[in-house]
Amino acid sequence: MPTVNWRYEHTVLALCTLAFTGTMVARLVVSPLVPEITTQFDVTNGTVGLALSGMWLTYALAQFPSGVLGDRYGERRVILAAVGATAVASVLLAASPSILAFGLFAAVLGVGAGLHYSVATTFLTRQFDDTGRAIGVHVAGGPLAGLAAPPAAALVGSRHGWRAGVLLGAAVAVPVFVLFAWRVRPTEPLRPDQPMGERFALGPLAELLSRREILYTTALATMGAFTWQATASFLPTFLEVGTGLSSALSALLFSVYFLVHGGTQPVTGSVSDRIGRDATAMVTMGAGVVGYGTLVAAAAFDLGLPVTVGAVGLVGLAMSWGAPVQSRFMDLLSDAERGAGFGLVRTAYMVTGASGSVVVGAVSDAAGWPVAFGLLACVMALGLATLSANRLLGLGY
């Protein structure tokens, strides 16, 4: 039998992916428990939604400082801090005595979980030459959490209460913390002696973000993040209200979306190592144009379940844009810039892209779900056109 050549860097990749899954589980278990939480604290859905928005905002804002901390203290320490803080924040969130405390601890959870991704991505680029594949495997940890966490939280919450459901975040994070501490070697910081204040100076940050290639890639990532956020928030509702599917079938197709999304991330990352970042990103954006467009057509013309399933699969492929686009950032940043630099651009595009939920929700209220998801098809078309223009006209971005 052939033997598998398992190396240390594969251990690092597996554990970084598990760590990302753990930080994502802790955030995703809350959404299915919102009805019980609103009842517990006697508040509206909007109030709990505000707390969750605060969690995702602090998560986005933590990306840049995490890169700075990784350069100062080493990636291993920061990743352990992220997973450990996620576990502690999950326990605090489950024990919240009031909605005010719930909102505060949700924000703390966002900060803790937000320390992981940028640092881990930089860490992996130092371990692998084929960075696209490594980033693709790592980012697949998010959809893996999306596939498993919501139904598990709903099941536990229905039997033991919402607090037990929230504790699933800690139940995943604690063993991941132990495994990571045990199997990943200490890492040397890249800038142990540089004062932290210098890393937050506005001049160098503005210079990095204003580089033509970085600005272009950030625009692509913002389009992807906008669409991802809206899809994660509203795809089940669109399927149920827009196309008339049952809530159970809509939830099942949402799981199919996460399954395809997670399964294609390593593939698109690996393909981008071979044929290029932009060509692969064009495939994902093109899949988005067809996928969202078909969902709109299915809602408008009642095209049936098989067409809807195929469209959901294409949307899952479209949302694997992260592997080639994030790899593009790493290609543009020097070794010395990657830690803080990737964190900075990730904060920039995540904060801007977070508006996807608000915009699509407002459009659906004003004009209906087909128009709202038609907007997502247009965003993907804009991304595809941007990539095509750069490629065909030789713009050099």
TrEMBL record:
Membrane topology: Multi-pass membrane protein
A GO MF label: transmembrane transporter activity
UniProt cross-references to Pfam families, sorted A to Z: MFS_1 (PF07690)
Major localization class: membrane
Subcellular localization, as worded in the UniProt entry: Cell membrane
UniProt-listed PROSITE patterns: MFS
Keywords, alphabetical: Cell membrane, Membrane, Transmembrane, Transmembrane helix
Gene3D superfamilies per record: MFS general substrate transporter like domains
UniProt key word Cell membrane: yes
GO cellular component, one term: plasma membrane
InterPro entries referenced in this protein's UniProt entry, alphabetically: MFS, MFS_dom, MFS_Efflux_Transporters, MFS_trans_sf
Residue ranges annotated for the Major facilitator superfamily (MFS) profile domain, each copy included: 11-397
Stretches that traverse the bilayer: 12-34, 46-66, 78-95, 101-123, 135-156, 162-182, 241-260, 281-301, 307-323, 344-363, 369-389
SUPFAM superfamilies in the cross-refs: MFS general substrate transporter
Keyword Lipid biosynthesis on entry: no
Name the UniProt record assigns to this protein: Major facilitator superfamily MFS_1
Organism: Halorubrum distributum JCM 9100
